[in-house]
Amino acid sequence: MTDASLVEKALKEYTKGTKAYFPDEAEGWIVATVTSKSIEGDQLRLTFNVDQRNKNINLDWSLAKLQASNFADLPPLKNPPMLEGTDDLATLSYLHEAAVLHGIKTRYLQEQIYTYSGIVLIAMNPFQRLSLYSPDIMREYSGKDRGELEPHLYAVAEDAYRTLIKEARNQSIIVSGESGAGKTQSAKYIMRYFATVDNLGNYNSHEAAPVATTISEVEEAVLATNPILEAFGNSKTTRNDNSSRFGKYIEVLFSNNDKSSPRKGVHIVGAKIRTYLLERSRLIFQPATERNYHIFYQLCAAAPAAEKKELGLTGWDSFFYLKQGGTGTVPGFDDVAEFANTQKALSIIGISVSQQWDIFRICAALLHIGNIEIKTFRDEASVDDNDPALAMASKLLGVDKATFKKWIVKKQIITRSEKIVSSLNQYQATVARDSVAKFVYSMLFDWIVRLINKNLAKDGQAYNSFIGVLDIYGFEHFKKNSFEQFCINYANEKLQQEFNAHVFRLEQEIYVQEKINWSFIDFNDNQPCIDMIENKLGILDLLDEESRLPSGADASLVTKLYQRFAVPTQKFFEKPKFGQKAFTIKHYACDVTYDIDGFIEKNKDTVADEQLATLNSSEFAFLREVVAIEATPEPEPTPNRPVRGGALKKPTLGSIFKASLVQLMETIRSTQVHYIRCIKPNSTKTPFGFEPQMVLQQLRACGVLETIRISCAGYPSKYTFQEFADRYYPLVASNQWNNDSRQLTEIIVTHRITDLDKYQLGLTKIFFRAGQIAILEKLRTERIRYCVVLIQKNIKKFIYQRSYVRTRAAAIQVQTALRAWSARQQMVAIRENLAAIKLQAAIREYLARSKYVELRTAATVIQGALRLVNAQKEFHFLRITSAAVRIQKVFRGYSARKTYKYEVAAIVLLQSYVRRLAPVKEFSQLKQEAKSVGKLKEINYRLEGKVVELSQALKEQELGNKLMSEEISHLKTQVGLWKEKFSKSDLSNKAVKTEYVDTSTELKKELQSVTEAKEALVRERERDQTLIKKQSEDIRKFELDLEKHKEELTKLRDELKTTTKGEDPAVVMGLRKEVSSLREQMARLIAGKWRSDRVADSQLVSNDGDSWAYSSYDGLGEAQPQPRLRTPSSYLESPDSLERRRTPAPSARTIVADSPETERSIRILEDKALEDEILDSLVTNLRIPLPSTQTVATRSEIFFPSHLIGLVATQLAHFGLAQRLQVVMGNTLKAIQGLTTRFEDDYVSAFWLSNCHELLCILNTPDMRNQGFSLDLVRGLESIQKQLEYIVKEVYSSWIKELRKRLDNTIIPAIIETQSLPGYVCKQSGNLQGSSGKFSKVGGFTTEQLLNFLSKLSKTMKCYYLSDSITQQILSELIRVIGVTAFNHLLMRRNFCTWKRGVQIQYNISRLEEWCTGQNIPEAAKYLQHILQAAKLLTLNKSSAKDIEAILENCPDLNATQIKKLLSLYYAADFDSPLSPELLKVVSSRASLNEKSDVLLLDLEKVSEFNKPSMRHIEAIDKFVPSWMNLPCLAAVTTLAQ
User: Fold this and answer.
1) What stretch of H or E contains 254?
2) At 465, which helix (H) or strand (E)?
3) Residue 747: CB partners within 8 Å, gap ≥ 6?
4) Which of 277, 379, 468, 1476 has the fewest C-beta atoms under 10 angstroms from its C-beta?
5) What is the C-alpha radius of gyration for the chain, rounded to an integer number of angstroms?
6) Lowest-pLDDT range, 15-29, 104-118, 511-525?
7) What distances in angstroms separate CA 516 from CA 510, 746, 770, one per listed residue?
8) Burial label, 443 (beta-carbon count in 10 A; 0-12, 13-18, 19+)
């Protein structure tokens, strides 16, 4: 290829209007637009206009220079609008630093904090709480693929969890980032997800699996490690209020569930924690505005008063180790509450309360150590013997105060011959004091971690796999970098090298799988930098060697480093130009200069042997246990390097860290790794504040840009043939379109891309070099724009041509009409002229005739007027005269009548007065008499007399009954004696019959006399019975008298009401009490009489097998024979039941089978075969009629099981078989429950739900409720009804669960993904949005199938005559599940919210609403309002902030948080207006006001409460038995009931 063609190809994309990026100090990168391009000879000039600042940038290059640099100096191009705000940076066409920064910024300002970059999840810290981590969100991500929903921590955790299960391979999740980026919080959310995901995974999405209540004890203990490690290992820094000051790798251990377990998959059985590089120096020093570890402030703030006094604790500002930063409290951080959480977490993992206070005792001792004041005297350090801090520290540590003090201010040097003790200066003594504190705290931290591991991973507990979560510090670069930064950056170098290799492997694997031609991808390998640090004679090796020397110093160490690495061949080490106390390492992220001061001391980081011996000799056993951990690590001897006599025997911190890092890398390499890079977006912790330069620096440090460089070296853009064809088919002529997506893809790229190196065709995907998709997108936009213009041109031509033809035809029609109108006007004028002449003649004639008639009429009128005036005068005179005469006559008559009436009235008044005197006197006497109490007393006396008479009569009757009873008893006794004598004589007669023939005559006589006595007794009994009948008649008469007395009392009450209005209230109340007492006395007498009669009746039962007895009083005064009562409880009715007993209820008695018919009935009901027949034929093996739309079964064919079971229950109740009723119905209901709980099919559930409700209606009929059953029977029936109600509810609930299971995988395809409108088809997912959908294929469950499913279900319930209330509840609940599931999924769906999708969803929901209306459940449509309004929001105009009012008006049910989420997910497709930033700001401000109260996802578990349907009125039990069933026992019961 010639140079000219190369230049033309490179500059082809830089046309007018193209956007590119330019570096900027404030924004990192800014966007500018090409305004002009010119080439003059060898010089190129490009002019750009900066969009944000409205200024021009002129760039001049030499073409030769550009070509020499492979055109790398050209500004990076901006991606097409289609890729703006993409959630996966790997899909960008132009992959470079500026595009990555712009993509992250765009999403972050839309409050989308998570973004994918290939295998990496970039997590931006929002610096405020978001509703993204609720159990509902967990449930949405559970079981979903990584790219199906929006990027999230849970998506990465779910991917790791599912891969663990499917591939049985251990997983690792590496969470890294600088302090304040959110690493700790992200790791906590991941741990919480693992602790709950096995519950979410083993419960369906519709089943309630509350996160807080379903986790096991082990899972709870795993979660409890977070507050413990945060308390002892986290602190407040300038960058983060809860910064982890150590690295940790938590292995969550999983084990396969047992086969017998109902839960499938794996479950957590424990955890292991490894910690790395605890920041020990923070214990003794904190910079300004920072804090020490949280546990110390918690202890000072929340320890009880007694413990505070014992530990010597006061406020945090009284301890030197705590007050150096000047900050004791953190806004939004409650130390008291956090201390309670820490204690609770310690208890959960198995640390007893006594051990907890041992830990706190050591923490308090460390604070007192910091307060030990070290003085100087003659350059020697000293500590006062009376120092209170020294005394308290020694007491709490359990060590000797003098010894502890001695080895703070002195040191001992051991030689071969002697031990030399020397004094330390003040600085050295301070270091010795602080070393003890750091050592003890480090050992305490390690002891806590070891105990956590011991309790979480118990010995003998097997685990099959694990998921490791690495929460480790990110790359650090400060103004002054020391040993801690060196170790941290060394760890990041190792992790970055492994990350690069992992990304490289994945990239190459894709190429191998697709079998494309590829060459080795070269990337910046940082292995030489790692070798420089960790290899033999590397930096760490030299550091350890210098640390082992007694005379080792930082200056000698840095000199060795200069000599070893400051050579031209070493590219990763650099010696500073000035000074001899620092060195620079060129890390992968940036160059870092380390200050050598403190390297040796920090690497040793140990205490003197004398101090260690003092601690080991402590009386405090717990302290001895803690510091004993120091003896466990073994030093690693350096090969070929003998250890000198004075060398340090303990391992250094650097060697320990290196060994643990090597072990960590081995673990990571043995697992499948997932990466999360946490980014801190601003330094001021402003919610959703974005500092581009800060973010850009972290992107470089975390390796995201290196990943992009690796991807760009190959084929970063990859699409399936179907996706590519759906997107770019407009780039070729329509005659080349076909249904083979691979062939069409090949045609497109062949026509549009001439350089074969720019793309590769694989087996299922097409691969593009960087920038090719942007070129294709630009060509597609131009092609579509051309097609749009062409369509508009032709449409406008058609419109204007049609308008011209219509205008011309209209003009001709108007001209014709005008000419016709003119001719008509001329004809009208001629006709009007002729008519005018005729009218003039007629008018003149009329005027002359009128004038004549007028003159004649006037003369006649004048004459008549004169005559009238004369007549009126005469008439007036006559009228006046007549009126005067009439007035005189009337006045005279009036005067006479008035006089007469006055006289008559006076006479009548006088007579009335005279006659009134006598009645008034009599009325006064009556009134006085009525007001007196005597009258009432007289009435009461009369009542009392009647009561006394009744009482005497009753007593006489009772006395007579008593005498009669005694006489009957006497006669019975005599009868018994005579019977005994007769039997004895009969026996003796038979014995001596042959011997004593003569005496037989006497015996016969004696027998005859006995017989006669018996007949006399029988006659006497008949007389008694007659007497009892008469007594019954007397009782009837008494009752009639009682009724009369009641009527009299009622009348008296009415009289009292009318006559006591003006009387004394006390008198009235006394009379009322007297009347009530009389009434109670009468009632007692009647009751006593009634009970005595019942006792007499019961004693008349004969002893000779007579099967009849007299029934209880039935209100009619008749004694009717009835079967003997089973129990005498019916005789114990209260007198209040007399009124209820007036209506006979022959079936309301529990009956004993004395008659043969009754005995046969009871034998049938108590037969075990009847119960077996019910269970086997009516329940277990019942052939349920299948639902059919052609032959609908009758009610009798559907409800015959419930009616037959109800018939048996009524018969058992009728015969009083309460126990048998409980057994039969209990077993029957248990069988029904067992049949319905194991779901078989919809028709089975519908059939039994309908029959159970029908049986409940049968047991609630008035006949069953109003009968006078025994108490046991009534309770039994109530228990059966409650069981039935429970079964109805349980069948309803289990059926709903099964239906929701079947709907679970169909709702999303049917409601969200189905595209029923052909003109609005779009891609199912991903960034490539199809324009017309020619090649889009919609698969899966459709809306039509969903409606068919619901219709079939509704028809099934109708076929089985299920209650309308239950049917509506079931269908409404399913509609609610559909609406809530679809809405929640839409809020979490990735790259899905477009206006076309909104139109499709609205159409699908409208069909559901029509179905609800057709099924007569329009109220169920309210559950679809959220998803309907969400779809409507996608179709509304969203171009400016003014549109927010229209959105709120059309979406009243959506809260601000949901609207904000939908708008942030909205994707502007072709020719769609992009979202206005002002609109997003307005919505975000409204959402922030109600963020705490607003919820993002709807509650799927909030199931509507089951409403008990009303009871159907059943007139009679249907005794229908299908002809195909052989039920002999039930047939007998049916006959019995008839």
Assistant:
1) strand 247-256
2) strand 465-473
3) 732, 736
4) 379
5) 54
6) 511-525
7) 9, 14, 17
8) buried
Active-site residues: which are they? 179-180, 184, 240, 243-244, 474, 476
The whole model's pTM is what? 0.68
Structure tokens given for 206: 């519709």
Residue 916 has a pLDDT of 86
Q: Exposure pattern of 65-88 as b/e (b: 16+ CB <10 Å)?
A: ebeeeebeebbbbbbbebbbbbbb
Structure tokens at 242: 């809860």
Residue 539: phi, psi to the nearest 5?
-60, -45
Q: Which of 198, 819, 936 is nearest to 811 (CA)?
A: 819
Tokens of 911: 């007579």
The span from the CA of 118 to the CA of 356, in Å, is 45
Parallel, antiparallel, or unpaired for β 672-679 and 120-124? parallel
| Per-residue pLDDT tens over the stretch 1491-1528 | 666 788 888 877 778 888 888 888 788 888 888 888 88
**pLDDT at residue 994 tops 60:** no
Q: What CA–CA distances, in Å, run from 723 to 742, 1334, 1396?
A: 10, 12, 18
Q: Are 1479 and 1441 in contact (CB under 8 A)?
A: yes
Q: For 746-798, write each residue's pLDDT tens digit.
A: 888 888 887 787 888 888 888 888 778 878 888 888 888 888 889 999 999 99
Tally of CA atoms within 13 A in the half-sphere of 1528 that contains its CB: 4
Q: Which residues contact 865 (CB under 8 A, 6 or more apart)?
A: none
Helices and strands, counts by H and E, the chain = 48, 25
What mean pLDDT, rounded, does the chain reach? 80
pLDDT band, residue 49 (cuts 50/70/90): confident
Q: Indicate the pLDDT class of residue 803, thresholds 50, 70 and 90.
A: very high
- Residues whose CB falls within 8 Å of the CB of residue 1142, separated by 6 or more in sequence, listed in order: 1115
Q: Which residues pair with 968 in a beta bridge?
A: none
What region does 168 belong to: left with phi over 0, alpha with psi -120 to 50, or beta?
A: left
β pairing state of 765-768 and 717-720: antiparallel
Best CA proximity match to 1511, nearest among 1204, 1252, 1210, 1236? 1252
Q: Of 369, 365, 585, 346, whose CA–CA distance to 488 is shortest?
A: 585
Mean pLDDT of 98-119: 88
Cα–Cα dist 225/345, whole Å: 7
pLDDT number for residue 1138: 33
Strands 171-177, 19-24: pairing is: unpaired
Q: How far is CA 518 from CA 96, 760, 761, in A?
A: 22, 9, 11
Answer for the pair 1458, 1430: CB distance below 8 angstroms, yes or no.
yes
Q: Which residues have a Cβ under 8 Å from the Cβ of 295 and sit 6 or more positions away?
A: 231, 232, 342, 363
Residue type, 288: A
How many Å apart are CA 578 and CA 383, to the nearest integer?
A: 41
Angle (CA) 1155-1157-1161 rounded to 5° is: 115
Q: Which range scores top for mean pLDDT: 216-220, 801-805, 951-955?
A: 801-805
Q: What is the pLDDT of residues 1344-1401, one digit of tens each?
A: 999 999 999 999 898 888 988 999 999 999 999 999 999 988 888 766 788 888 888 9
Which range among 70-84, 118-132, 270-284, 547-561 shows the weakest confidence by mean pLDDT?
A: 70-84
pLDDT of residue 1337: 39
| 1394 vs 832: which has the higher pLDDT | 832
Which residues, 6+ apart, have CB-to-CB distance to 504 below 8 Å?
521, 523, 710
H helix intervals, 207-265? 211-214, 217-233
Task: In whole angstroms, give the CA distance from residue 531 to residue 571.
Answer: 12
